[in-house]
From TrEMBL:
Keywords from the named record: Cytoplasm, Methyltransferase, rRNA processing, S-adenosyl-L-methionine, Transferase
Protein name, as recorded: Ribosomal RNA small subunit methyltransferase I
Gene expressing this chain: rsmI
Listed EC numbers: 2.1.1.198
Subcellular location: Cytoplasm
Major location (coarse): cytoplasm
Top-level EC class as recorded in UniProt: transferase
Protein family membership: Belongs to the methyltransferase superfamily. RsmI family.
Lineage: Bacteria, Candidatus Magasanikiibacteriota
Pfam family, any one: TP_methylase
Annotated PROSITE patterns: RSMI
Organism: Candidatus Magasanikbacteria bacterium CG1_02_32_51
Its biological purpose: Catalyzes the 2'-O-methylation of the ribose of cytidine 1402 (C1402) in 16S rRNA.
Amino acid sequence: MNDNFGKLYIVATPIGNLGDFTFRALETLKSVDFVLCEDTRVTQKLLNHYSIETKTISYHQHSDDKKVLEIKKLLEEGKNLALVSDAGTPGISDPGNRLIFEILSSNEQISVVPIPGVSAVVTALSISGFPTDKFVFLGFPPQKKGRQAFFSNLKDLEYTTAFYESNHRILKAIISMQEFLNPETKICLCRELTKKFETIYRGTVGGLGDMQVKDKGEFVIVISK
């Protein structure tokens, strides 16, 4: 790696409970020249909480090639950057992986450094009680085109499966799972992990209607095989 280039740090942030922030992550955000944010308003609240004065730059799923070139130029000028998402580990079902790919594709001498921490999908898997020596993570289901096929294909997967869903579509997702999956399929539905109103629903797909799932918050669904 070229010591004249800056480093791109991939920094995991809390998914709810600020106590889950690591010391290394804090020190990294304090020491870099800029923090690349999915939403600068969300990240600024985190930085303010820890009295971190590092300047922020917006980078999200709608950022264009011009923004990527801007980030690349900063790294080649020797600036150290930290990439964060709104919550959790960047690059996991968010646009961070595209930025990393673009940076490394154009300049393999730039160091990309992981600063590990919380990930919602791993957190949910860890408490599911289901086999996790092998698992499948599917990100978010499609909102429209391909959504029915997404849920239909769940029945054919061979391993424990996890995916995210928004509060706007969780009740529809439950209906779809009941339509396509065996009623006896075991499920662990996690809402608002690490937050004040964290709720873990455990049972079967057939019993989802009795769980009275609240359509508020962020969800991780884990299905056993």
